[in-house]
Design brief:
The chain is 50% helix and 14% strand. By secondary structure, the chain is an alpha/beta fold. The longest helix has 29 residues. The protein starts with 6 loop residues before the first strand and ends in a 5-residue tail after the last helix.
């Protein structure tokens, strides 16, 4: 789908990946509906973007029916970029039932409900693009990330199946799967270091991946160095071996540091 002249709803707009994506979409000629929890932050972002007519919608997607309320306020859009997410790391017994529910709601239920609300009008028009920002964690599991992995595996599965459901309607469905990101994202926000030797990508690279997915209706765009992409495919094919490797001391140490830095984001 051509981005210029289209209206795009972007969730999680004020995070590092969200800001980079908002700027890339606006530079591509899209009019944005920006969504985040803090009104002042999204209003400030809207004023920084090129172009005119950008709108903001304050929404807490961790609340019940938050996605439906956002879709109703956003109105008809041509593009959805479901980017909002919670890190959801740590041992499951450390989570309250409410925290588990919030993580599942933001990371998995919200994208599904937004797709449910927005796609019928797209199908009626015969055009539209739904982009789900997932993660390579939707292919490869790691310690202290059981909830996060569950949401990303689930989101990837939903997107692939929904793409098949919408085949032939003119509405595309794409997945953007970042690996480790520097200067933004989970590790940067937690003050933790990504595992050594695997490389990182930038928020701008993720934004470029979103645009590529929209432009070409790509099934999936993985935004990561080659080694990370190869390892994620290896993990899917060899779960027994991968689980053994990821249970080792180095993987657990990295995971513990990440989870500790994200305790307050549940």
């Amino acid at each position: 789908m051509e981005i210029d002249g289209r209206t795009a709803l972007l969730t999680g707009a004020t995070g590092g990946l969200g800001r980079a994506t908002a700027l890339a979409l606006a530079r591509g000629g899209a009019t944005l509906v920006l969504s985040a929890r803090k009104q002042a932050d999204i209003e400030a972002l809207a004023t920084e973007l090129p172009g005119e007519g950008h709108r903001v919608v304050t929404a807490d997607l961790g609340e019940p029916a938050g996605a439906e309320a956002l879709a109703a306020e956003a109105g008809d859009v041509d593009i959805l970029v479901a980017n909002a997410g919670l890190p959801a790391t740590g041992r499951i017994e450390e989570y309250s039932p409410e925290q588990v529910g919030r993580a599942l709601r933001v990371n998995l239920e919200t994208p599904i409900m937004l797709a449910r609300a927005l796609s019928p009008a797209m199908v009626e028009r015969g055009s539209g693009q739904l982009v789900f920002v997932a993660s390579l964690a939707g292919k490869s599991a790691s310690p202290r990330s059981s909830i996060y992995n569950a949401t990303k595996f689930g989101l990837r599965g939903f997107a692939l199946a929904f793409r098949a459901d919408l085949a032939g309607t003119g509405v595309g469905v794409s997945i953007v799967s970042p690996g480790f990101i520097r200067d933004a994202g989970m590790f940067a926000e937690a003050g933790a270091k990504a595992p050594p030797g695997l490389g990182t990508a930038t928020p701008e690279a993720v934004a470029a991946g979103v645009l590529r997915a929209i432009d070409a209706n790509k099934v999936e765009v993985a935004v990561a160095p080659l080694r990370q992409r190869a390892l994620s495919h290896f993990s899917l094919a060899t779960p027994t071996l991968t689980t053994k490797i990821m249970s080792g001391p180095q993987a657990r140490k990295s995971a513990e540091g990440l989870a500790k830095g994200q305790t307050d984001k549940r």
